[in-house]
Amino acid sequence: MISEIVVCDYGIGNLFNVYRALEYLQINFKVDVDGTKLGDSQVILIPGVAAFGEGISNLKHSKQFQSLQERDKAGTPIVGLCLGAQMLFSSSKEAPGIEGLDLIKGSVETLNSSSGQAPHQGWAEVSYRNDTNSQLSSESLGGYFFFSHGYYMAPKSSSQVVATVEIGGLEVPAVVAHENKLGIQFHPERSGRSGLKFLKFAIDTSSK
Amino acid sequence: MRLVIRTLLQAYTGLTAFEILPLTVGGGIRSVEDGRKLLQSGADKICVNTATVLNPVLISEMAEAFGQQAVVIGIEAKKFGKNWIAMTHNGRERTELDVIELASKLMGLGAGEIFLTSIDAEGTQKGFDVELIKQVRSVTKLSVIAHGGMGSLNDALEAHHAGADGIAIASVLHWDKFSLANIKAHLSSHGVHVRETI
Fold this sequence. Notes:
- The complex is a heterodimer.
- By secondary structure, chain A is of the alpha/beta class.
- Helices cover 24% and strands 32% of the residues of chain A.
- Chain A contains 5 helices and 13 strands.
């Protein structure tokens, strides 16, 4: 079943492409700009092309920061894309001293000399981890996905890592799941057919 | 390895209407606000050359606003004697900047990717400037997209071996010399990872 979702618009980044993908998938959605609509739907989607500091600052200014934490306590499924996923964490090296939503324990770390490329740019396949208890299947994560990120999710609990991506010899989380939260490092809305297929699967799975 | 198709800005609005693939948009960006407008219109990354060569602070301002990953720096390299010099204004104006030195500093300034054009090779279909790619590769961990000179399927392979993360292609596609599928099949048959066509 395709549920109604709400897109958390915090005033920056690339929402146009997220809307387009949702329209293509024929998923009904609302847009929230001030936290008041976040409780109205079955799944909250947080997109993101921006920097961590500016993203969090905007979430606070719009009062969505607090609303998201409340919705999480109420158990509403939350799906974050790229920066939207990184903001679910406690902190980020991109903006030292700025607190994240803290809905997934852990930090966001810098891709640096330990990886072959920084930032990580381009198409990549991900490796599904069989020991995960996520409902996402390896089949839904098939194909190439579009990555564009200088930082990566580092959850405290490694069992929350659903899939990883290899960047010049370094394996970093590509998908992280914890209770009602799902963090996706790549951009399924910009990853052609494989991305759309996965986005639909992720939203459907989260809404169950 | 990625294949990047250069396209006209006019075509861009139409493209994004039905393609669900990433877009880097460049041309005429002079300020953070210019970049913001493009990102809000559907661009995933913005590409800036002239403005950042003249004012490098703009790179860090854009990285702070959009994240480093969204800031692509275009370098237009033209060889003078033994060195490549950075050009601006679509290769018309010469600066005093050495390309290799510039490339080595870009990551620290906040750039997220390099779009490397060889002014000498562009439009010739006689192969990429492999030496230029190698030298830029040796000084940076940024993703490097090589542009200018693609004329044969092996040229793509040579750019890859020189260290390019992606190649940008214009003429050979516009003139139907090869299809993207041809190029991808050739790379793939030589063990280079490319996304399947479609």
